[in-house]
């Protein structure tokens, strides 16, 4: 297994939910963190919590729907850390309902955040990874990017786009020494749904966010000649714990 000690890890959407849990988990492995989100207050709090445990962590406010914001954030990260070892594209937003009832501005926001911002983050870090001849990019999508849905088709479309881009990017950069992986989890017990205006608490299909972060860490620690390029995780209803 590879060590994550002193690896520079960029995590988008790191101020709450899965992103914050991933940050804490890879910090336990000794990683250095560059955390990105829109809310400076939440980023500051997350940074303080991580630094209190001895983790090297810097935060960067960034709106993934704004190209200049992405470029500025990544440039600042490169200036502060020089290297970029791992990019975890975690940020995303949710919306559901009939296609005809989706506000057009919500569709634009959804796709800018879930896929366009993700692509632009990759554009910004790949040149650095190429110079290093090493790096890992983990794009966190959703089972909605594999399975169709009558209830959240517009959202599902954005996650299918993540899958298609991830599979193609992997082929594009593998000869540069860069691993690209797609991760497809089920719904989790985070604030994602509530922040999007949909009350979903303790639904039976939700998985534990800490378990998901553990799987992600396992993927990142695989030997350098192993690429877990496409990992799907589903809720198992036969468990006893």
Describe the structure.
- The chain is an alpha/beta fold.
- It has a single domain, classed as NAD(P)-binding Rossmann-like Domain (Rossmann fold), CATH 3.40.50.
- It has seven helices and seven strands.
- It has helices spanning 17-28, 40-52, 67-81, 104-132, 153-173, 192-195, 209-220, and strands at residues 8-12, 32-37, 57-61, 86-89, 135-140, 178-184, 230-232.
- A seven-stranded parallel sheet has the order 3-2-1-4-5-6-7, with helices on both faces.
- Helix 2 links the parallel strand 2 and strand 3.
- Helix 3 (67-81) runs parallel beside helix 4 (104-132) and helix 4 runs parallel beside helix 5.
- The longest helix has 29 residues, at 104-132.
- The protein is globular and about 45 Å long.
- 37% of the residues are buried.
- The mean pLDDT is 92.
Topology readout:
Elements: E1 8-12, H1 17-28, E2 32-37, H2 40-52, E3 57-61, H3 67-81, E4 86-89, H4 104-132, E5 135-140, H5 153-173, E6 178-184, H6 192-195, H7 209-220, E7 230-232
Parallel strand pairs: 1-2, 1-4, 2-3, 4-5, 5-6, 6-7
- CA-atom Rg in angstroms: 17 Å
Task: Give the CA-CA distance, first to last residue.
Answer: 28 Å
Briefly note the structural class of the backbone: alpha/beta
CATH superfamily: NAD(P)-binding Rossmann-like Domain
Determine the mean pLDDT. Answer: 92
The global form is globular
What is the class in the CATH system?
Alpha Beta
Give the count of structural domains: 1
Biggest sheet character:
7 strands, parallel
List low-confidence stretches: none
The helix content, as a percent range, equals 40-55%
Strand order of the largest sheet: 3-2-1-4-5-6-7
CATH architecture classification: 3-Layer(aba) Sandwich
Count of DSSP helices? 7
How many beta-strand runs?
7
Protein name: SDR family oxidoreductase
GO molecular function: oxidoreductase activity, acting on the CH-OH group of donors, NAD or NADP as acceptor
InterPro entries: NAD(P)-bd_dom_sf, Sc_DH/Rdtase_CS, SDR_fam
Family: Belongs to the short-chain dehydrogenases/reductases (SDR) family.
């Amino acid at each position: 297994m590879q060590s994550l000690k002193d690896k520079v890890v960029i995590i988008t959407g790191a101020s709450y939910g899965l992103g914050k849990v991933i940050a804490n988990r890879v910090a336990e492995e000794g990683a250095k963190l560059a955390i990105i989100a829109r809310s400076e207050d939440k980023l500051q709090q997350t940074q303080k919590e991580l630094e209190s445990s001895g983790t090297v962590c810097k935060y960067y406010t960034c709106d993934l729907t704004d190209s200049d914001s992405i470029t500025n954030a990544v440039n600042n990260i490169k200036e502060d850390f020089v290297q970029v070892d791992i990019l975890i594209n975690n940020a995303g937003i949710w919306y559901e309902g009939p296609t005809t009832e989706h506000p057009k501005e919500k569709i634009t926001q959804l796709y800018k955040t879930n896929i366009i911002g993700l692509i632009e983050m990759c554009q910004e870090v790949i040149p650095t990874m190429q110079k290093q001849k090493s790096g890992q990019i983990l794009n966190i999508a959703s089972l909605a990017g594999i399975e169709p849905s009558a209830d959240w088709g517009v959202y599902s479309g954005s996650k299918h786009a993540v899958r298609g881009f991830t599979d193609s990017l992997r082929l594009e950069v593998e000869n540069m020494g860069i691993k690209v992986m797609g991760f497809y989890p089920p719904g989790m017990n985070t604030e994602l749904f509530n922040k999007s205006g949909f009350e979903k608490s303790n639904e039976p299909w939700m998985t534990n966010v800490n378990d998901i972060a553990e799987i992600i860490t396992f993927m990142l620690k695989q030997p350098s000649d192993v690429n877990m390029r496409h990992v799907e995780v589903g809720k198992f209803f036969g468990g006893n714990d």
